[in-house]
Queue: 4 jobs
Job 1
Amino acid sequence: MSDTVLQTSLDGVTLLTLNRPHKKNAFNGEQWLALTAAFDAAREDDAVGCLVVTGAGNAFSAGQDLTEMSGEGGSGAAFPRFMEALVAYDKPLVAAVNGVGVGIGATLPLHCDVVYVGESARLRFPFSALGLVPEAASSLLLPLVVGPQRAAEIFFTSEWIDAPRAVELGLAARMLPDAELLDATLEKAREIAARPVGSLRAIKRLLLETRGDSVRETLDREMQSMAARVGTPENLQALKDFFAKGGR
């Protein structure tokens, strides 16, 4: 396991901690591959009843490391493989969102069965601000969670969503004090993992089947549209402006 993703297991719960705190856990190719391997391993391990994802330091994830948007063997090659592992993951998946969740830091929780946010958590779907399009099937999942009008507003404006608003919109089940977030999440995960794993898996598969092939079809459309947008004059100017503002 790469040190970009830390793994601990206890009482049927596996905790995966995104571990690039100096980059606010922004993803590079190595971290995508490490998280993919961890998801695949947890899926195959009958001792794992519940998987929890959180971030090291004061951020869940700042999204894609924009210094590694493309490149052979980099994030561009590793992201689709991670999405395959995420969409195939057929056991309870819980997120403890601490601090900022931007890009994949906001779209990954849409695939989680239960999301808890710390009181300082802030989510952002930044795609219009970067001259890009939604990722990770969020153009399907976000409208399902918050409704089509609210999803359109979120996508078009790239607005920040604070923790109370995330709960109000249904993006999170509960807001917790930052200092209690991880312990409370792990306590709930142990409660889930204590149930028969066969039952948990059957329930998760039923939940996944309600979306059927729509997630995969949406992923394909988004990736095609993303490929057409990356490197356009609008995208390059948006990235220039983004870095000029210090990544805001």
Note: Residues 5-179 form a domain with the 2-enoyl-CoA Hydratase; Chain A, domain 1 fold (CATH 3.90.226.10).
Job 2
Amino acid sequence: MTDVTPDNLQDQKAKEAYFTASQGQLIWARFKKQRAALVAAVILVAMMLSGIFAPFLSPYDPTIAGRDKDYTNGAPQLPKFCDSNGCSARPFIHAVKRERSMATNFRWVTTVDEDTRLYMKFFVEGDDYHLFDLIHMDTHLFGVEGGKIHLFGTDEDGQDIFSRTLHAIWTSMKVGSIGVFIAFVLALIIGGVSGYYGGWIDGVIQMITDAVRTVPAIPLFMAVAAFMPPEMTAEARFFYISLILGFIGWPTLARRVRTHLLTERNQEYVLAAQLCGAKPGHVIRRHLLPSFTSYIIVDLVISFPYMVLSETALSFIGLGLKDPVSSLGVMLQKATSADVLLNYQWYFIPVIFFIVLVMAFVFVGDGLRDAADPYSEGKK
């Protein structure tokens, strides 16, 4: 008879917790062991929150061109506490002057007035907006007294790049969410029917799936863009882009759903449900799909960055979203000239944020995939 020690009791409780844990608890326990995925998850949540609260966090409305006419193509303004005139307990920036210079053939030149300080304020009143598209507000997180602040600089239209970046993150999240949701619903329905019934039904559906997979995205969007009237609103264009991304993004997940159902449809629990009189829709919805829910969730997370990148690429080449909508592709359209590459490098600051966003999704997806695979630890 073995002695009962605190260590033995702890091991016994850990084993009991393991064997009685739900699938979600097991996935979370394995996911927490992966530091890279956990850090990426924190970054992803932070960026999602910054996109959701973009109207509050950004100091200005990003859709208004010429917001700061005296600071077009202006460099980033970073708050400071000290300058040549001393230090201050409150952060501030310097005022700017805009004038024509003979040295630049009378082009407009912006100079910094180091003798004038513009102190930062928090929770200031500014442009009206609707938080969550519901709550009318005009309070912004920060601003400056007697002027404007541009943390990431401005573009050629005087629009604040920091404000546009936060709104662009939210736009990409919305486009990706709608596209992934449409692809998810279509994949479950089409893949579920194909895998459950098999036979000639499976053959016909797979022919359709292969046909959709072979449709090139760029020519498809070129055809759609040709039929879109120029006066179409930004909201309507946003809806159509999301819809098309969803309709061309379902085949991969549908194939995986079909493969799983072909394997599981002959299991005893499925036969028992059929003998009890359960209809095919009930068997697929309540028994087959829940058996690999974790893999579906992982697939959705992994497919999300591809939706975001697709929207960015299409908007960049002029086939997707357009001004006044803020998206990464729309913002990059202004960064294609050699003048921008040589003199206004801050145009590319939003690219860093979107690289971080996409990489965070990739790391979280990889972490969830390993966490959902019970044999992943043994493979390493």
Note: The first helix runs from residue 6 to 20.
Job 3
Amino acid sequence: MIIPLRSATGTPRSAKRLPGRDLFLFAEKCLTSTDLNEKLTLTRQAKALDDRGRLEHDGGRAPAQPIAMVRFPERPVTVDPRELPRRKLTTPDGRAALLHALAHIEFTAIHLAWDLLYRFRGLPDEFYRDWLAVAAEEALHFELLRGRLRELGCDYGDLPSHRGLWDVAEDTAGDVAARLALVPRCMEARSLDVTPGMIAKFEQIGDEPSAAILRRILHDEIRHVALGSRWFQWVCQEHGTAPEDSYFELLDRYLRTEVRGPYNRELRLTAGFTAAELDRLEGIGN
């Protein structure tokens, strides 16, 4: 049985309140803002303050608002994934479409990291430092991809996107074990399987700038998934549950789509998956 850690709700507060030195007010302001640049600025500011030991991680002065309070910019327009056009990478439009999709994943990932540290209180201080660092790296990834898009004559928001990643966040808002299992250890772990192939394709068409960005992202994502593995195991230990059995129980309970391979065993092992977990995944996902 999985016993969820608490996910508190409370009376909404104004998103205009200055964050000060409270990590959770920074998180709330970033999550409730509809301004893309403000979200990036707040993330950078919070990480810089935390690096100097000037942010408080004491649980916040007020409980977390419901996840429905999270806001995104008006653009890009969200559509059903089946409505997104399929384009070949060998065309300029195809490259822009793929990079835009990746930028949207990274932009959503900023919110996933912020919401994880904001929503679940009473955890070790290191948990909050770890996921703030992830939020800052996801912001850097987004900015790198956005810069490359602009070099190709496009910008983030010019093309439609879908909200599949955020649907997972909403589904797991009441259970930190489920959030860790479904986001870093499932959705984000998928990038370890597919990104090496995307890098190779960009190299084949001579787009070294895009390939270099993806190499940087892959390097960082291995560590992000590893943090998910570490903290998932910690939560299971606190609850007295077996991590492997809990992981597959949570996938079965929350995942809206089928688990699919193939899996990059080398990178997943580096990121904290066990050989037994990978054997089970390959048994149901191929």
Note: The chain has one domain: 23-285.
Job 4
Amino acid sequence: MSNFPKDGAITRNPLVTIGIPIYNEERFLSQSLKSLLAQDYNNLKFIVSDNASTDGTERICREMLQLDGRIEYRRMECNQGAVANFRHALDLADGKYFMWASGHDLWQPNYVSECVKLLEREPEAVIAFGSSSWIDALGNPMLRTSGWTDTRGMDSIARFHSLLWGNVHPILGLIRMEALHKTRDLLNTAGTDLILLSELILQGHFVHAAETSWLRREFRGDENYQQRMARYSSREYALSRSFIDKLLPLLRLPVELVRSVLRSKISTSEKLLLLLSLTPVLPAKYLVTRNQQTRNKKT
């Protein structure tokens, strides 16, 4: 990756790269790209990483290239799996801040500018993210809601637990590039977004940009636990490749979360307290998540 300003240094208009990893997104892609291109923040670079789409995705991307020179389109020759595609978008990024974006969601025009404003003002923050709400495939509002946690004022242990019991929406927020450089590469396993966020939240705060929002599109319908794990194991996602991963897809997650704690820069006493607190919490979190997914499928 290219050089970037020292963390905490205030830059009047720092470069932001938006990485857009996609696969067969022709249904919503034009609308999503137009939403991103309409951002009122002008120092933007867009990396579209196409994971060998087989539909009209490539055609749409090349049409968009003619409309806006800030877009860089990279197409893989064969499907590498979802995590590899997310990594590819990040590897091509430049600038001080980075954001992953999907090929089906929508953003308010001030999303990037509000998040940049917060991160420039809060040097201890590593991610800024707006409010989120859900829409269906037709763009209609859904009853589903997602909350958020602003961790300013929390210590590292409280921050970590707020992440475990919250949601992973901040993974699609604006991230300080220097903080990303201190994390491990995205792991090819179920829960890789939570693992990355756990390493980021032990570096600094996640801050809520209350003056902006984005719409997350749900177009797959409700999934139960088994259906979601089957999707993660599919050729498209390729998150669970070994026999053990396919048999017990979430077995690796607690192990990697512990590794995230151990490799962090928090004090030894904080690490010990956090690991002790996780002993009963991780099994409870697993059971609660499975029960929630089962309830969602029935309603």
Note: Confidence is low (pLDDT under 50) at residues 1-8.
